[in-house]
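Revision sheet: structure tokens.
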Amino acid sequence: MSEKVTIFAGRATMYLAEKIAGEYGQKLGKVTTAVFNDGEFQPSYDETIRGNTVFIVQSTFAPSENLMELLLLIDAAKRASAKKVVAVIPYFGFARQDRKDKPRVSIGAKLITNLLVAAGVDRIVTMDLHSDQIQGFVDLPMDHLYASSIFIPYLNTLKLPNLVMASPDTGGAKRAAAYAKFLNTDLVICFKQRKKAGVIESMQVIGDVKDKDIVLVDDIIDSGGTITTASNLMMEQGARSVRAVCTHAVFSNNAIAKLENSSLKEVIVSDTIPQPGSEKITVLSTAGIFADVIDRIHNFESISDHFQFTTIL
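Predicted:
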């Protein structure tokens, strides 16, 4: 007889975990988190998980205590005799630190995977990693899913007559090219130069945007500077409309204000990170994808379909 599946969540991702559990067909497991006066906290499971396959849902966006809470939940599950512990990390924080791009810096993504393994995780499920190479940082199964399966159907419903996919920088060209190939559209790329992190010195558009309905594709929108600069530049060059598609909407500092004051007609994001309300932001849920993957992992079924960009649920 196969072991029982139980799904739990850290406090930061409760909103998504409840939807995932609902899609899977069960209630979310209960966790109590004791918080001490100095800010230290201790999560504990309110039900037996002995012999179970435990899925812990937690995105590791700021603050860093979300990561710490995930590590504590993994450790608690192992000490409570869970048979397997799977970390479902919709947004894998620190993923932009995937290499030494200058002297005397850490490789943060590698450190995070080391911490997850040390805590006792047996498998990691995540979505739209900033860099594919992070999968090689850990000697455990790491399932890398794509949000394209929710974005592409939505884009098709818009029926944009002159659709062109675009990348806001050269680093995202591969991702935008995959959308362009699947949707059979042209591709436009922005070339930007930075003065320093978060500050754009110059940007140029490579490709024809005149009278086109542009959709900018990125994995992360942080401060919003790149995506809004690209949008405004394309509208100045005659684009008919500009939208943005982004899996992980970090939206730090005044990013929401930047988006609302930009020429972007719509910003389409997933719910890997909780979002404040905004008329320009359309949030699509990833719950169905994660619930399906949980079911397949539990039943030892192939999930390779979800590793394909073109997978449509």
